[in-house]
What we know:
Elements: H1 6-16, H2 20-41, H3 45-61, H4 72-87, H5 97-102, H6 122-126, H7 132-154, H8 158-168, H9 174-181, H10 185-203, H11 216-226, H12 233-241, H13 246-258, H14 262-272, H15 279-290
Helix pairs in contact: 1-2, 2-3, 2-4, 2-14, 2-15, 3-4, 3-15, 7-10, 7-11, 8-9, 8-10, 9-10, 12-14
Bound molecules: zinc ion (ZN).
The site of zinc ion has 7 residues, from helix 14.
Amino acid sequence: MGQLNESERYLLEQIRQGSAEGWSQFIDRYQGRLLAFARSRTRRSADAEDLVQDTLISFLRALPGFREESGFETYLFAILRRKIIDTYRGRKVGVCLLQDVLADPGTGDSSVADARFAAPDPTASWYARADEQLEKRKALLTDALREMIDHYKQSGNFRDLQIVEMLYYCQLRNKDIGEIAGVSEKHVAMLKHRTLGRLRARVGVEAPADETWMADDLLSAIWQEQRLSCLKRSTLGAYLLGTLEGDWQTYVAFHLDRLGCAYCGANLDDLKSQNSQGQSALRQRFMESTVGFLSRR
Ligand SMILES: [Zn+2]
């Protein structure tokens, strides 16, 4: 989920200048999907609303340091997920429901990619270039992973895409992946080996031979942070209308229903309930509680 588009950049400029109108539009655009995500991760509705309010305040506070390298949605979801993890310590907060069920219990909190790589607070360190070397490495690997995913999609190889997605986005075990995909555990291991070889070839001379340079946890942290295989809102809309082509419809259903991607699920819920009652009352609440954090010119 890439960089800001033109209308997002315009909105950002308005918000930076302290426009309450711009901020109200921003809340209106994102509150539904954020609430749906928070509700899927918390038991009480009031908790979900508080978490979204805190997320909006964090967004405004971190505005001067926002690097515009990811879209608003990806950035907001990352802040929100971090707040949920901090609020419910010890509870699994995977990026997909399947991960909460199947993630390897042997590695502690495996629902969160290794803490060395996953920035603890996206508003602070994700964008602060705290570690230049790591940032550079992440950027190279992000591009290589994106290219690989595009290639799978363009060549219609959704089966391998699904396996690699389960490996890195969901951090499942080879055994579980094999069962879900209907292939042997050995096939999963082979595909993983081949994937790493391709990534290494794409990154080229910049990658040292050191094994940890592209560790599993780093690849997972990147995939989860950037939501590399997540679906565009327009694709979700087409899915709802049933206008996607066969292979795509199947893949989207896999991502939403089988993996249970919490981000895309939240987006879908939001699309389904657009303009429902209650949304505007909540917008009022979020507006009143956050507008004081807008910068004044
Ligand atoms: Zn997704």
